[in-house]
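User: structure tokens for this one?
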Amino acid sequence: MGFRPEPFRCEVSQGRASAVVKIAGELDLATVGELESALRSLANAKRAVTLDLRELRFIDSTGLRLILEIDALARQDGFNFAVVRGPETVQRIFAMTGMENHLVFVDAPEDLAPPA
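Assistant:
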């Protein structure tokens, strides 16, 4: 019997001015479109978006690229964007690429300061 990875999940919880996107499983070329769709629609409607990686088991370069694109969009459009730290295996890609110091990382979704 072979190992079956957890299926990708993308759950969005919304408040009046903020949203939390919680993802689980593997974020890669096959699943990045689902997350991109959710994040881009929230970027147009919210003042604060938090991406929760705590249940993510794997991320590849397409997932990293999407997170960096949303971060750049947030800086350009003036909404807050933060990433809840994932497991060590996930955080490793941010450390190896030098993005650990570029992105806003928090320990929990509620740690993102509300916009002024």
